[in-house]
Give the backbone structure.
Amino acid sequence: MTDAEHAGPDVAPDVAATDGPVVARGREAVVTDAGAGLVRRRYLDGRDTTTEVALHRHVAAHGYPVPALHEQEPGGMVMDRVDGPTLLEAYVAGTLDADAVAAVLADLHARLHALPPPLGTAGGDRVLHLDLHPANVLLGADGPVVVDWASGRTGDPALDLGHTAIVLAEAAVAGVDGAAGDVAEVAVSRTHLRALLLAFLAAVAAQDPLARLDDVVARRLRDGMPPDTVQAGARLLRDLASGAVDAAPGTVA
């Protein structure tokens, strides 16, 4: 994953003086209030967002639930503000249980991979988010909304499912750390995170979510994620798949 956003302070040294109050922030981007029901997503490195914006608009045009994107700006974009908790926050609050959260994630994956890919996409490839985890899903008034398309591209859906699985696995073995950029920093136990991982694996079992695990691990390492955590998450997934560890939610690997 590149950057998961979480609630931050109202001011920050890396926010432009003309930006409004901080709504959310992560390792690579800050989201600020842009007024009139809008937010501005600004990347700290000022990167070109042309590819991300194009994919965001593509999935929106085909009815996928994303915030309406109004304008591309240098190093960022302006889009609708979605008020509501993240899927992770709803899980922690007890509003949704692990099976319900897993069902939402599985449905969002299925809907995304069913979309027609952009023209010129290689045969068999589909649109991928590659960071579709509970902290990147907001529960808005009209249902779940997927944010943070910085990693999005086209490819094998197994990569997308595998990425969600390893993010959840890493959280289950190492805990949640908002500073690491994987999930919003909220108080949630590893036991609850493990239960969520198991529920997700069960919800997408028919799609073989670990089919491209080696490639997912390699990508995580290229993205600069902590090697020990990535390898521990991958080991947990392989052990669960082989039956080497107990799949009971309360069991810690």
